[in-house]
Each structure stands twice: as C-alpha cells, then as structure tokens.
Design goal:
- 2 copies of one chain form a homodimer.
- By secondary structure, chain A is an alpha/beta fold.
- In chain A, 46% of the residues lie in helices and 17% in strands.
- The first copy, chain A, is built from 13 helices and 12 strands.
- The longest helix of chain A is centred in the last third of the chain and has 18 residues, at 294-311.
- At the A-B interface, helix 4, helix 5, strand 2, helix 6 and helix 10 of A face helix 4, helix 5, strand 2, helix 6 and helix 10 of B.
- Chain A binds a DNA duplex through helix 2 and helix 4.
Chain lengths: 336, 336
DNA sequence: GTACTGGATTTAGACGATTCAATTCGTGGT
DNA sequence: ACCACGAATTGAATCGTCTAAATCCAGTAC
C-alpha cells in the first residue's frame, strides 16, 4: 500500500540499497545485468523517489520559490514562464506563489518557502526594503528581486521604470496633451513610484502640464474601470485628455469604462498602459503600452539565482536592468 | 552560516533536542521557564524548522498539488483561491502548477508532485481517463478531479457542463437565432465536448438550427480573436448570428474581433461565453456567460481531499456536481 | 527514612536516500 | 600457485525532526 522505498527495491532485486542508489544516480558504475535487474524491480514495485529524503540528505532542495504580486496578470505568468523554462534545464522545480499584493500573504509564503529550504526565492516584493528579505538572505536563502532594482546586497532583475514613465510622458506631451492622469498604486510600491517619477519629470521639463495622480490599492481591471468611470463623469473641460496607467490591467478596465461612457479613444481620451501583455494588443482599441520583456525578466532572474547557488561563496550580487520600449497603438495615436 | 538545527537550539538553551521539539509541537508539556529559554534560543539563532526532515519523519508532507490548465485564466485563479483558503485552515500549503493544456507538462508536474509525496493532488486534467492518474492513486496519492466529473474510483468536483451548454443554447434559440457557432477546443477535452453536446441537444430539439463547430487548440484570447476575424470575414447571409464560446477568454477575443470588424454586438452577432470571469462583466459590451462557482469548486475539491486524507481507510469517493447559471448581459440581449 | 507519585526532561531509535570507505570477487601477470 | 589490481558491490553513517519509552527529581505520605 504505502509507496515502496529503496530498501524494498533492493530486496526484490537481491542487491543492497547502495546499489539501487547507484543505479539511480550513477548508473554507469553498475554492471549492466545488475542495473537491469534493479530497474525491473523499480518498475515492478512502482517505486518513486522520496524527494524529502533526498533533500534532507543533500542538505538542499531542488525547488525555487517564485512569489508574484498577481498570478492572474499575464505579465507575471510570462515571468513565471521564463523562470520555469530555465529551471527545467537545471533540474529544478518552481513553486509559484501569489501574494496578491498583500504583505501578510507574502510573509506567509516566505515562511513556508524558508521552511522548505528552497534553493532560493525570486520575488516581486510588496516592499523591496522589507527587512525579512535581508534576514532570509543572511540565514542562507538567496533572494533575487524581480521587476525591482535592488540597492544593497541582493541580485535583481528589473526594467528602468523611470525611463518607462518618461517614454509614456514624452509621447503624450508631444501629442499635445496638457491634462494627463497617472493611475496606479499603491504609491509605496517602487515600480509605481518610479513610473510616476518618470512621467512627472517629463511634465516638469515640458512645463504647463497638469498631471493628476490617482491611487488604487490593487492594479486590476476592476479598479481601472472604477477610475475610468470617475474620470468619465467629469466635465470635459476639466477632464484629463490622456491617461497613463501603471499596468495594462488597469488600462484595459479604464478603456472599457471609456467605451461604456461613450468617450472615444484616443480622440476624447488617449490611453497608455504598461507591460504590453497580449490582451493589450488584442483590446477593442489596441492599447499603447510600455513593453517590458517579461519572459526574459523571469529567465534572467533564474539565471542569477542558479549562478549564486552554484558559485556559492565567491558570488557577487548583480543588478541587471533592462530597457523598456514604448509600443504605440491606436489608443494614443490620432494618425491612424 | 548554515541554518541552525534543533540541535544547536537545544545546546544554546541547555536542554535536549527532545525538549526543543516539545516546545515546538506540544509547548504545554514543557515547564514555562524552560519553554521561554528555548524560545529565546530559537529567536537568537534564527532557527527555522526543516520541513524536509519533518516530512520524512512524519511520512507525509503538508503540501497539496494543484494542476490547472491555464494559470492566466481567472477562472483557474479563482479555483486556486478557493483551494488555498481551505488549505490554510488545514495548515497545508498549495503548490500551484500550470499545465498549459499540455499533457507533457502535466505529466512532468505529476512526477514532481509524487516525488514530493504531496498529501494529494487537485487537477483539471487534460484527459480524465489518463491511466497515470489511477496509477498514482493506487500508489497512494489521492487525486481529486476539478471541473471534471470522475466515473471510476475518484473524487471529483464539477459543474454540469451539458446543462451549461443547454442553457446557452436555449437562450440563443429562444432569441431567434438559427445559425449559431460553437467555439472551443480541443474537442477531446470533456468539458468542451459536454458543453458542445448540451447546445447540440437543444439545437436538435428545436429543429431547423444550423449549428457550426469551430475547434481551437488552446482557449485563450488570441485564439478567440482569430476565429472572430474568420467569422467576420464571411458574408452576412451565411455568417452565424450568434456564437457560444467554451470559455470567456475566447469570448473576449471574439468580441474584440467583432468590434474591430465593425460588427455590432449583439445586433449583428450575439455572444455567450463560459465561466463568468470578472473580465466578462467588465468587457466593452458586458458579456453573457454561463457562470461556474469557481472559488466554491476549489474549496470543495480541497474539502474532499482533506476528508480523504484524514479518513484514509474508510473513505468513499464522491462526485460533487454543481449547477451552472446563465448570466444574461448585453452581449446577447436585444432588450437592453 | 522509604516508597510512591506525577511532572519535566532525556534518550534512543526511526524515516529514506546518499555517499564513501571497506570488502568481495574474478582475472591477468609472473 | 600466488599476488595484485580493478571493477562491482556492500555496509554504515549521516541529514533534522519527532515520539514513545525511560529516567530523573522534588515533594508528599506513611
């Protein structure tokens, strides 16, 4: 009934447990005939390795934790995709955790992962200065920040969010907009504040631009829609003529609200999102968006982690920064 | 450097490892003064339990595997949400795995989970008759099918998909549609074929209905959009006047294609989706959809699993079936 | 002073896989 | 016929935690 252990396999094959283990781990040192006998025994008994025992003995596990802010956001699934593809090559498993932008959930996941002695953790943290993170590192679990630049002793993979904000800002200002809304949140999240800083800088440089800020708790479609309704209800004279949203889910919700309210995009309201998820291209009005190389982000993060795990001692933390691209589509382009 | 073990904690507190373990597991049998001393030691050393060792000793782990077809589909994230909430109450962790409707990936995840000796597996399988599944069960890992009815010796939680198909079919036929497209895939997936069977039955009962079938590999926005473009390109006289799509992602893509092609919804094309994800309500034209109680599905599946894990021997497999609801919104309703 | 009680603590195996030093065995060289 | 060598295999220790049984000890009753 209970899953057979290596011991039963050995007994049935008439060899010692050491030999079975050798068949599993270094088959070439086992005589072909013996090897065959052991493999038959394994198959007959339906033996399955016990990962917990391996892990305990080896002192380290073969799983990597990945904590994202929102699994339902394609941006993060793309990251997961990238991370998993590389993990696979390293004979490693990814444990995907969803913090839902909630520090408590995030903490719970960190606890669990640390108890599982994961090889390391890739995380888009709620707060990148969380002392928990450095504590974990000092206790021996490598941490790589994803989509967030690290300053101190951590590896990180990120995209220049200020530049992203600037790209969006310049684009909208050059198109003639003078009342622009920035929508995102919570503002305490570095990504959000960086993007905000970027567009703010361009607005100041240009001068005469009225930039308004709207904060949301979570960046999802529903919230975007809500803010959209709110803006649509304003009189046209005081309503922003363009909106830059800190992610595409917000932008999609916002776009839907415009459509429901009968405002034309981009004529009445130009929209630029962030992340360039597949939905963005496929939206009712194809969405302009600041593209981030999500899958590459995930892959690189995993790469840094594996590097750190293998090099162990003489590893130097690195901060990789990618450049975002502005993808212009109909939602902000009058010329089409 | 290395994480301290219970042994170091014991040494520092001047007690035996057994006492430390007792503080961790049955604190009440330890004298308050000793308990305090141990707890101080734990904190000072930054001790973190080694889950692998606990697991090995206990013979069973504290994690449950959840394999879904598409993490990016909110329907499945809702299921995960439900499963996790209950898992939390049982001091259990959920490992979320994404099969991406790919049997190979699914198999890989199954292997990993079995090696980890997970408490059990919740899965929306690609093929519910996969012999792997029953093999795993016979080797001792309980499996609960999610969103899929089991016949043989398995627990399952599902929604009556035939009924769902009938609800959509009746609704569209009563509204006068006589050329209807069914879109989904792969048709080998039971959910899809059941929904198809449902609407087919209503069409046959009504008579004089031309029901056309379109198959896709994966049910995502992109694919929906593609089929939408394809239908939009047909001459109006032969084009279906209504479409029933096997999930909301497809429906959303389809809807976008209509909008781009200048077809009005529902006047030129009525649309009914499936799952009633949040996006559906928030779409440019709010989407009619067959609602499934996703979170409840996840919770119930976890409930069945926990039941089976605890009862162990005298457990009888159960097949829970929920009823879907048709939510009518603008995308199929002329009267609004 | 002895025997007993009950609470507090320790001790001594497991659990399953891995690894490495030790052993066995067959073969070839001399 | 004997030794040496290498290939194949074994045996035992180990990882960190848990638990049942054993031990210790202070206090109490007689």
């Amino acid at each position: 009934m209970a899953t057979p252990s290596i011991k039963e396999v050995a007994h049935r094959a008439g060899v010692s447990v050491g030999t079975v283990s050798n068949v599993l781990n270094r088959p070439w040192i086992v005589a072909p005939a013996t090897r065959q006998r052991v493999q038959d025994s394994i198959r007959a008994l339906g033996f399955v390795r016990n990962e917990a025992a391996r892990h305990l003995r080896a002192g380290k596990s073969r799983t990597v934790g990945l904590i994202v802010l929102d699994v339902a956001n394609p941006f993060f699934t793309d990251i997961a995709e990238g991370a998993e593809s590389l993990a696979y090559e390293h004979d490693t498993v990814v444990m995907l955790c969803n913090s839902k932008t909630d520090p408590v959930r995030e903490g719970h996941h960190l606890d669990q992962l640390e108890q599982q002695r994961v090889l390391g953790i890739l995380i888009t943290p709620f707060d990148s200065n969380d002392p928990r993170l450095t504590a974990m590192v000092s206790r021996g679990t490598p941490v790589v920040l994803v989509d967030r630049a690290a300053d101190r002793g951590l590896c990180s993979v990120s995209v220049d969010d200020q530049l992203g904000g600037r790209l969006a800002g310049n684009h909208l200002i050059e198109a003639g907009h003078r009342r622009i809304a920035f929508i995102g949140g919570p503002f305490t999240m570095q990504q959000v504040s960086d993007r905000m800083a970027g567009i703010t800088a361009t607005a100041e440089e240009a001068g005469g631009v009225d930039l308004q800020y709207y904060e949301v708790d979570v960046m999802g479609v529903i919230e975007g829609r809500k803010i959209g309704e709110q803006l649509a209800a304003l009189p046209a004279r005081s309503r922003p003529t363009a909106a830059f949203l800190a992610n595409d889910l917000l932008a999609l919700g916002f776009l839907q609200a415009m459509s429901v309210a009968g405002l034309r995009v981009p004529r009445d309201m130009a929209i630029v999102g962030y992340d360039d998820i597949d939905f963005a291209r496929a939206a009712a009005v194809p969405l302009s968006s600041v593209r981030q190389p999500a899958e590459l982000l995930g892959r690189s993060a995993m790469e840094l982690l594996q590097e750190e795990v293998q090099a162990a001692d003489q590893h130097r933390h690195r901060q990789v920064i990618f450049q975002p691209d502005l993808i212009i589509r109909e939602s902000s382009d009058y010329t089409r």
